[in-house]
What does this fold into?
Amino acid sequence: MLTIFTTPKDFTGEFNIIQNNALNSWRALGNDVEIIIIGDSIGSEKNARLINAVYVPEVRVSKSGVPYLSDLFAKAQKCSTYDILTFINADIILPNNFIKIVSNVKNQFRKYLMVGHRWDMDVNTIIDFNDQDKAEEFWQKANKESIKHPCTGIDYFVFNKNTFKALPDFTIGRPGYDNWLLWNARRHFIPLVDTSRDI
It folds into this structure.
């Protein structure tokens, strides 16, 4: 299967709802999906425990306290159980076809970087993605109301373990790191797979 890793913001205010919905959607993909939550933001340990995720509190940060991408990847690759890794922002809800699409890409390429656009929608209630009716209701609404973000909205990256061995010290949430990952894959002749139409 695969490992999903992220570093959340504090689980306070609207971010509590946003991030809980994301985490719950990842866990609904299956119990054999490994989730790693990195960083000591408020509520991270508690929410990791609620979804049976691995919790890694220590991460190297900038002077302003923002985690470095390089250390996030290093921590995830060190403690992950699976060879397929997914780095994703903690506010991204994943649909239930995510695993199938990853498997399709894996079967076609020995090495790859799988990415896609995000779709934007305001969600202000907690969704139970383990309840099939409520999940279906949510996705029907998402299909009608969500708006495709411009191509700069790349919020998930799927790749084989050790694809990225030496990352610069990009800080999370700042411009540049996502496009660098795409550039680096192309520079090393790693197929870049855009799954925006399928996910």
Q: What stands out?
A: The beta strands are 2-6, 34-38, 54-56, 84-88, 113-117, 119-120, 147-148, 154-160, 192-194. The longest helix spans residues 14-27.
